[in-house]
């Protein structure tokens, strides 16, 4: 199985994860947004990788400005997840006092 096929197939479990996280009303809103933003990262990374291969005949990882731009979306996603769970923890502490 190629890495491209494996990458495409990995989307289905992640979509299932998102479905369950969305159904659960306990998931912090910002964290949920962060998890959905990860799909933006995937949507940006695929065309960036294709562009790197066609235009530079290299992998995305070897074209710093493209790779960094794509990774920015991963960073933003992670920040939302962390802030969402941080907010939930602080709210839980406040409720327990």
Keyword list:
97 residues, mainly alpha, 84% helix, elongated
Short overview:
The protein is mainly alpha-helical and 97 residues long. It has helices at residues 3-9, 11-23, 29-56, 64-96. The mean pLDDT is 93.
Low-confidence spans: none
Termini, distance in Å?
53 Å
- Main beta-sheet strand count, sense and barrel state: none
Radius of gyration: 17 Å
> What is the mean pLDDT?
93
Class from helix and strand fractions: mainly alpha
Give the DSSP E fraction (strand runs of 2 or more residues): under 5%
* Number of DSSP-assigned strands: 0
Total of DSSP H or I helical runs spanning 4+ residues: 4
Given the C-alpha coordinates, what overall shape results? elongated
- Into which percent range does the helicity of residues fall? over 70%
Write the layout of secondary structure elements.
Elements: H1 3-9, H2 11-23, H3 29-56, H4 64-96
